[in-house]
Design a protein that fits this description.
Elements lengths: L2 E2 L11 E2 H14 L5 E3 L11 H18 L6 E4 L2 E2 L5 H15 L7 E5 L7 E2 L3 H9 L7 E6 H7 L7 H11 L5 E6 L1 E2 L10 E2 L8 H9 L8 E3 L5 H14 L3
Parallel strand pairs: 3-4, 4-6, 6-8, 8-9, 9-12
Antiparallel strand pairs: 1-2, 5-7, 10-11
Helix pairs in contact: 3-4
The structure holds fe (iii) ion (2 copies) and zinc ion.
Length: about 250
């Protein structure tokens, strides 16, 4: 069985098997699946104060981008990072440095910066910080945004009472054309809490009515929606059914 060369990541990532890729691509085509929105490791921190942590971030990121090209034209989502006391400006520079090292001209993958809750020293806690990262990224046309409903709510964006206002601010600061995917999570905490504790859809502080508006909003309704709720298979099936039911055709 021919294996394609992939640099190992601490032995954790499985080698890519061409047959698996081909079978997947065939299925993907037949089933009409939407975009793949892959997620980088949670331990990846592009703006750590430790050089070895930044090195792992660079290597894992580059390796994942290499893998993503087996399924061309999809999305690779990552958390911008935590500056751990170095300050926003330094953190943003380090994140852009990783992107400037890893992005390349003829890649087909779009990398997504995720909007963050602002827990600890997390960057991406407001649209301005994401804009600043884009501004320092040379191949910024390869970069989009993934909006996480729990994170923006925890960051202080009131998507319950003013979804239009939040999206207008996103458009002014970043541009809605950059928005490529949505993580649908309710939040266990209140607006601006900076906690990042996900809840099941309709069981948190955001509430079902707000999610019905999110999934049907003209600026969002065609995007891939991904659940990251604390659940198990049967529970996710119920959440998907609930949302499908509330989606106006
Ligand atoms: Fe995430
Ligand atoms: Fe998320
Ligand atoms: Zn989260």
């Amino acid at each position: 069985m021919p294996f394609l060369p992939v640099t190992p990541r601490g032995g954790s990532a499985k080698a890519v098997v061409r047959e698996d890729v081909d079978r997947f691509l065939e299925l993907w085509d037949k089933q009409g699946y939407g975009k793949i929105v892959a997620h980088a490791p949670y331990t990846l921190n592009a703006c750590s104060n430790k050089p070895e942590v930044r090195r792992f971030a660079r290597e894992a990121f580059a390796e994942d981008l290499e893998r993503m090209e087996y399924t061309p034209g999809n999305y690779y989502n990552f958390h911008p990072g935590s500056h751990v006391g170095q300050g926003e400006e330094k953190g943003i520079t380090l994140i852009a440095e990783l992107l400037n090292t890893c992005l390349y001209e003829n890649m087909t993958t779009t990398v997504l910066l995720e909007t963050m809750a602002g827990k600890g020293s997390e960057l991406g806690r407001n649209f301005g910080e994401l804009r600043a990262i884009l501004d320092q990224t040379k191949l910024s046309e390869k970069v989009g945004i993934c909006l996480d409903t729990c994170h923006v709510w925890d960051a202080g964006y009131d998507i319950v009472n003013d979804l239009d206002g939040v999206l207008e601010e996103f458009d002014r600061t970043i541009g809605l054309d950059r928005l490529k995917a949505v993580h649908l999570n309710d939040s266990m905490n209140g607006l601006g809490s900076h906690k990042d504790r996900h809840a099941r859809i309709g069981e948190g502080c955001i509430g079902l009515d707000a999610f019905v508006r999110v999934i049907n909003h003209p600026a969002l309704r065609e995007l891939p929606f991904i659940l990251e709720t604390p659940n198990e298979d049967a529970g996710w099936a119920r959440e998907i059914a609930l949302l499908r039911n509330a989606y106006t055709e």
